[in-house]
Amino acid sequence: MSTVTEHEPSLLERGWSLLLSSAKDAKQRERALRVAIRLVESDPWQLAAVALLVRLAIAGAREDDAAPAAARLADAYVRRGDLAAATAAAVLADRAGGEGATLRREIAKAFGQGSSRLADVSPAPPPLPSSPATDAKLEALTGEALLDRAAAALASFTETTDPVAHGKVPLLPLFSQLAPAPLERLLGSLTVRDFDAEGIVIDQGSEGREAFVVVRGTLRAERRAAVGDDRGPTLLAVLGPGAIFGEMALVSSAPRAASVYAQEPTTLLVASREALESLASTEPAIGRELGSYCRSRMLANLVRTSALLRAIPAADREGMIALFDAKTFGEGEVLFTQGGEPEGLYLVASGGVRVTTSDPAGGEDIVVADLGPGDVVGEISIVLRRPATATVTAAFPTVALELSRDRFQDAIRAHPAVLTELYGLATQRQDELHSVVAQEALDVEDVVLL
């Protein structure tokens, strides 16, 4: 089990936490204002602090002060190659009554396909956290006087020359595959959502209908252990600004395969399945690129997590995947039936399948296992050369990679370790199947004895 080391929240993190807890508490909002003002006055280009101050100005009904600062903020993030934060700033401009649509157009021109600014560069790193000295006069301000001080800080930011010139911006997965017009529409469909430290963004096992892009903050993705396993959750990844996660919910109704928690106050862009489906109906390019992106991410995830593929040297895995054919199964569709001969073995790429076998007592079928991405089915038949010992059915809309019987021979000739891995899995699964059936028979006998 992996763990995450705790850290002392920075002044900026404390400011965001105060904002998130201030919905019905004016004193908390004023504390957050003082933090944001201190940070912006000490460094007007600490952009996350400017974003915090813009948010607080809007909350204080100072939209006229917030709108030009939000526009300048969007431009500053574009200069630094940060599409996600620039888009979030455009949303702030909308909230302040500003020209969010114009800002999204400029963002799309910079990052969209064909832009002369696209290059193989990385976004500029954020500034190091700072803790400027406490200002006694600032600490004494309240109400409109405090908001006036915030307005002055925002005006200073707006009027100061940006030290970063317009230059190259990074070529981004998905976004930079879209021409500016459809990219602008995609950006316009995104909303902004905030989470405080330890907030649950995704809950393992829940239905997913949204994907996320990290604007600021860090999150951890972890998978809970199976029932009866006392090892605790496994850390899968730590996600930072620019990361995209949860995207499989846009193309699959399978339950979430892991949980995601905010490690600190976090801002996310949110894409809903409904909004993207509506866009794709009028902008086919969005649907095509989203499908292509999800497929590439799905395959990359398989390469990292599949025990079968991990048995192959990293340099050979893509060649192994090329031997498979992708097949899509609707919910309830049967991949193969007990007693039959599967056309090959299947590597579950997304969604999930249920493995069942006939009840020896003639009752309902026995559920042997529920399997998900990275799991293999059909290996008993193809490796041990016998009819299928169970029926496998798609529990949700599922994508599985099929390795046909003919190509299986090519695979094991090129990668003998695959046969070793599959033989071990096949014998283990067969033992598990026998154990489940035997236990079911004992349970039935117990009922009869009663």
Question: Describe it for me?
Answer:
This protein is α+β, with helices and mostly antiparallel strands and 450 residues long. It folds into three domains: 11-127 and 137-188, no CATH class; 191-305, Jelly Rolls (Sandwich); 314-449, Jelly Rolls (Sandwich), CATH 2.60.120. Helices cover 45% and strands 18% of the residues. It contains 16 helices and 18 strands. The strands form five sheets. A four-stranded antiparallel β-sheet has the order 3-10-5-8. Strand 14 and strand 15 form a beta hairpin. The protein is elongated and about 80 Å long.
Gist of the model:
This protein has 450 residues and is α+β, with helices and mostly antiparallel strands. Helix content is 45%, strand content 18%. It has 16 helices and 18 strands.
List keywords for this structure.
Jelly Rolls, alpha+beta, 4-stranded antiparallel β-sheet, 450 residues, 16 helices
What characteristic shape results from the CA principal axes? elongated
Rg (CA only)? 27 Å
- Unreliable segments of 5+ consecutive residues: 1-5, 441-450
Strand order of the largest sheet: 3-10-5-8
Give helix % range.
40-55%
Question: Which whole number gives the mean pLDDT?
Answer: 87
Helix segment count?
A: 16
Which class best fits the helix and strand makeup?
alpha+beta
Q: Strand share of the residues?
A: 15-25%
How many separate domains make up the residues?
3
| Biggest beta sheet summary | 4 strands, antiparallel
Total E-strand runs: 18
Oligomer: single chain
